[in-house]
Structures are given as C-alpha cells and as structure tokens.
Automatic annotation (TrEMBL):
It comes from Alishewanella agri BL06. This is ABC transporter. Signal peptide: none annotated. Belongs to the ABC transporter superfamily. Macrolide exporter (TC 3.A.1.122) family. CDD domains: ABC_MJ0796_LolCDE_FtsE (cd03255).
Length: 226
C-alpha cells in the first residue's frame, strides 16, 4: 500500500535550514495498523504529511497504492487525497455551520456524486459510528468524542485505501479515547489500512506495529529491523 524510499525533507535555507526527515524508508502493507511515535521535532508529523499527500519530500520516492506521488503538483496531490485517503485530525476540522451529515458528505462535493446520494451515504456512516441520533446536529451541539466520530465517518466517505489519523485522541478524555480507539480497531478489522501518529504509548498499543522516530530518522520499527 505504502512504499517510501530515502525520504528527505528540508525546510528553510542557509542558517535557518532544518532537515525534518533524513533518508526515511518504510513499507506499509494493505490492512496494517501502524502507529508512528516520537517526541516533538522527531519528524513524525512531517512524515505523516508526506505519506498523506499533504506535502512532498525534498528528495526520495513515495508510492501510494502503486502510484508515484512524490513529485506531484498541488492539484494532483489534492486529487490523490480525495480519491484514496481519509484523514482524522486531533482538532476534528469540522465546519461549524454544517450538520454532522453535511460535514461527513463534504468530500463528495468534489466528485460527481449527487448531493442526495452523498447525504444518504453520510447518514449510513454516521449510523455505523453510533451517531444516527445526532446526524442533524452541528458540531457545537456535540461532545468532543461525538465530533471525532463525525470526523471518522467523514474519513470513510470516499472508501479510502488508507486512513491517516493524526493524534486522534489528543483532545479527548481517557474514557472517550478508549471508545475512539476501539472504533479505529474495528475499522482495521474490517479491512482498512490505518496509519496513526501519537505520542501516547497506551494509544500506540492498539496498533499492530509501532514505528519510533527521533531527529528525522526511524529509530525503531516493531515490524522489521532498522
């Protein structure tokens, strides 16, 4: 599913230059559940952004589902994200004026899917994540855990090849965090590939493979020898 080779990412130039990734190579197979861990500045978020087609590497190659995406322009990256990737963010990224169903259906606005069909699919997904009774509520009318469930449903709307979760429990209490991680675990059991960034060991324990980063490099990978 994911194949990255010798990824480097440099920000700035001259005296302000920072190398966020240093020759990072990894493979992630279809239907793996992988956690990427590391302290602030370790490169884990930079790696997530490149794997999620939110950014491109300074050098190196990256293939997602067999397509070389390392050199795509912004428009092509956007198309790749919309077609193949689902995102779950720490801060939810829901539009406050839209209902839960409208937020979930939002990615389908950029496709040929009719609006009514998009809303029907959104409502079905909200039922699946346990929010059938809240689908017409707006984000401000929901708890943090409910908003994250909306975000998970939205991540699934395009039948993505891989789900990227960036600190998905970062703004949640411990009880709600467990509920969200149980939901992600169930999605993995259903066949989804999940790549998650977290700094919490108890959250990473839900994954079947843990990659630890430091200073822009992979320090440890429980799935293979580094």
């Amino acid at each position: 599913m994911i194949s990255a080779s010798a990824l480097n990412k440099v920000f700035g130039s001259g005296d302000t230059q920072v190398q966020a990734l240093r020759d990072v190579s990894l493979q992630i197979a279809e239907n793996e559940f992988v956690a990427i861990m590391g302290s602030s500045g370790s490169g884990k978020s930079t790696l997530m952004n490149i794997l999620g087609c939110l950014d491109t590497p300074s050098s190196g190659s990256y293939q997602l589902a067999g397509a070389d995406v390392s050199q795509l322009d912004d428009a092509a990256l956007s198309a790749m994200r919309n077609q193949h990737i689902g995102f779950i963010f720490q801060s939810f990224h829901l539009l406050p004026r839209l209902s839960a169903a409208e937020n979930v259906a939002l990615p389908l606005r950029y496709t040929a899917t009719p609006a009514e069909q998009a809303l029907q699919r959104a409502e079905t997904l909200l039922q699946q994540v346990g929010l059938g009774h809240r689908m017409h509520h707006k984000p401000a009318e929901m708890s943090g855990g409910q908003r994250q469930r909306v975000a998970i449903a939205r991540a699934l709307i395009n039948n993505p090849k891989v789900i990227f979760a960036d600190e998905p429990t970062g703004n949640l209490d411990s009880k709600t965090s467990v509920e969200i991680m149980q939901l992600l675990t169930e999605l993995h059991r259903q066949g989804n590939t999940v790549v998650m960034v977290t700094h919490e060991d108890d959250i990473a324990a839900y994954a079947q493979r843990v990659i630890r980063m430091r200073d822009g490099q992979i320090l440890e990978d429980s799935g293979c020898s580094v």
